[in-house]
Specification:
single chain; alpha+beta; 5-stranded mixed beta sheet; 9 strands; flat
């Protein structure tokens, strides 16, 4: 960790930039400030000086506070029911009107509207979308509040393609998969040699 650049380090952590990584032989390698600056710049913020990093950190906090929804939500196909969308609303006594527009990856559009209680700010999507990447637009209004949020909604499939689904009856030489993508009932979401 850089003792001379605490705001840069804080900004990098807030943006999800790792403070270190493990190399091939198991040594922890710290992230250099130059790397942090380059990654932060690629994300559209200025971390070139401590004052700029402090301003960018405030901007990130402001954007998060003003955001109605998370930028991305992943829902797994095996989860029951219609997916629900958590909203970031300040608690108030009055219900707010809402509109949701879901544009699926195939281009179809589904809409719903109603009222949402700020004490329990979750909205069911208009439909349960198929596996894929979809776009959501959510609007809430009423009692002096008018906000809009956009989100990329990802419906993850129950499982990856099976060999039969992928290649059919074709003859092939072999199958290739990333070991970390192999799943089993005994692992925590990342494959290991036991799963292989």
């Amino acid at each position: 960790m850089s003792a001379e650049r605490p705001k840069l380090v804080a900004l990098a952590e807030r943006l999800g930039i790792a403070s270190f990584y493990w190399d091939l032989v198991g040594n922890a390698r710290p992230t250099r400030d130059a790397t942090r600056e380059a990654l932060i710049s690629a994300m559209g913020f200025d971390g070139s000086e401590e004052a700029a990093a402090a301003r960018a950190l405030e901007e990130v906090a402001r954007r998060e506070a003003e955001s109605l929804v998370e930028p991305v939500l992943v829902w797994r196909e095996f989860e029951d029911g219609v997916p629900s969308l958590p909203l970031r609303l300040e608690a108030s006594a009055a219900a707010l009107d809402f509109e949701i527009e879901l544009r699926t990856e195939s281009g179809s559009v589904h809409r719903s509207e109603g009222r949402v209680d700020p004490a329990e700010p979750r909205l069911a999507l208009p439909v349960r979308p198929p596996a894929g990447y979809h776009d959501l637009v959510v609007r809430v209004a009423g009692h002096g509040v008018a906000r809009e949020g956009r989100q990329r909604f990802i419906m993850a499939p129950r499982s990856a393609y099976t060999v039969q689904e992928r290649i059919g009856d074709a003859r092939v030489f072999g199958l290739w998969a990333n070991l970390y993508a192999v799943r089993s009932a005994r692992n925590w979401g990342f494959g290991d040699l036991g799963d292989l």
